[in-house]
Amino acid sequence: MFGRDKKQKSTRISTIIGEETEIHGDIMFSGGLHVDGTVKGNVTAENQAYAMLTISEKGMIEGEVKVPNIVLNGRVSGDVYATERIELAPKASVTGNVYYNLLEMSMGASVNGSLVHNVETDQVVASDAGSDKPEQRIKLD
What we know:
By secondary structure, the chain is mostly beta strands. It has no helices and 17 strands.
């Protein structure tokens, strides 16, 4: 009945970035990553549909985020690409565009950028030279 068609696999948190930790550089992970500290670089999940990134209200990422599943209650300065699902909790703040398949946004969450549904990262192509904005092709299933 309810939830019968949901096939979201539970992901164990395998890596934690502590509150007093600041990382400078890109991170590529698999499984689950929890951020309480600061990451100054891009965060990317390996090609796994069930990889999960959680960012607590103390956590911050300055860079591009590309993961299937995200639970965000902290801050991201950069574009966010959630190929499966993104949950923006009450203290979430994104300064950049959010590309998503499924979006859950709580009251209090903020996005200073665009919310773009179903845009594949490899389908964003540069438009003609007369425009600053990229052309976006929307995948329709």
